[in-house]
Amino acid sequence: MKYSYKDMPESMKGTYGDFSKNFGFSWMEFVATIPSPLFLVTTYKSNGLPNACMQSWATFTSANHGKGFYAILTSVNKNGHLYQSINETKEAVINFMSEEHHAECMATIQNNQFEKDEITASGLTVEKASWINAPMARECFMNLECKYVWEKEIVPGDDHVMLCLEVVGIHIDEDHMADKTGENGILYNIHYPMNPEKVTKTGHDYAAVLQKKIDVGEY
Ligand SMILES: Cc1cc2nc3c(=O)[nH]c(=O)nc-3n(C[C@H](O)[C@H](O)[C@H](O)COP(=O)(O)O)c2cc1C
């Protein structure tokens, strides 16, 4: 048997799944609970200080007949420092953290003042990128140096945009060369899972890791 939902179930009315539309979230997001990779995007603000922004609504793809690898950040707030700084410099680093440094990366949200070096203030170390003008977070095990390609509103007039970045170079910590997934690998954001048939008063967000299940071989 399958449960089917087209409109928000009565059981979710008045819950976080309902009022969080004020922060830009659809109730369907919590019912579907599709995880997405979690990372820290670092840029230079117009005052020269490093900016750091947690991002998760995103995907990665090859394009241009295999000549390029691209990040699509699918929901970037137009009112944040990331959007402002990337439009000024056209360059950013995407930093992947393992579980060990999740707390410091999350602290960047509290240290989100324009006059702050958000990386250092959060207990992380600033490193200069090699091929672009942007800072990186040393403690993150993989850093993708990126250049801005384009942006698009999913719906005209939206307050968030999709940003396409081309990956121009990659740094990987030696301990992660063999595997970037698994226990110590890339974290995924599980955003407030809700069961409309059993709504609880409070919910949780989770950071998850991947477990390999099936060896598909080559295809
Ligand atoms: C797990 C997690 C994922 C997030 N993903 C996004 C995202 O995809 N897009 C976005 O605009 N903000 C996202 N945020 C919120 C920003 O990280 C937060 O508002 C940040 O302080 C904005 O930084 P900025 O002003 O430097 O842009 C996320 C926050 C968390 C905790």
Given helix and strand content, the structural type is alpha+beta
Low-pLDDT regions: none
Straight-line N-to-C gap = 33 Å
The first-level CATH class name: Mainly Beta
Say how many strands there are. Answer: 12
Strand line-up in the sheet with most strands: 3-2-6-9-10-5-4
SSE layout:
Elements: H1 16-19, H2 27-32, E1 36-37, E2 39-44, E3 50-55, E4 58-63, E5 68-77, H3 81-89, E6 91-96, H4 102-107, H5 118-121, E7 126-128, E8 135-137, E9 142-152, E10 160-172, E11 188-190, E12 206-208
Antiparallel strand pairs: 1-11, 2-3, 2-6, 4-5, 5-10, 6-9, 7-8, 9-10, 11-12
The chain binds flavin mononucleotide (FMN).
Residues 38, 51, 53-57, 75-77, 80-82, 109, 112, 189 line the site of flavin mononucleotide.
Concise summary:
The chain is an alpha+beta fold and 219 residues long.
Describe the structure.
This protein is an alpha+beta fold and 219 residues long. The protein has a single domain (35-208), classed as Pnp Oxidase, Chain A (Roll), CATH 2.30.110.10. The chain has 5 helices and 12 strands. It has helices spanning 16-19, 27-32, 81-89, 102-107, 118-121; strands at 36-37, 39-44, 50-55, 58-63, 68-77, 91-96, 126-128, 135-137, 142-152, 160-172, 188-190, 206-208. The strands form 3 sheets. Strands 3-2-6-9-10-5-4 form a 7-stranded antiparallel β-sheet. A 3-stranded antiparallel β-sheet has the order 1-11-12, with no helix packed on it. β4 (58-63) and β5 form a beta hairpin. The longest helix is centred in the middle third of the chain and has 9 residues, at 81-89. Bound molecules: flavin mononucleotide. Flavin mononucleotide binds next to β3, β5 and α3.
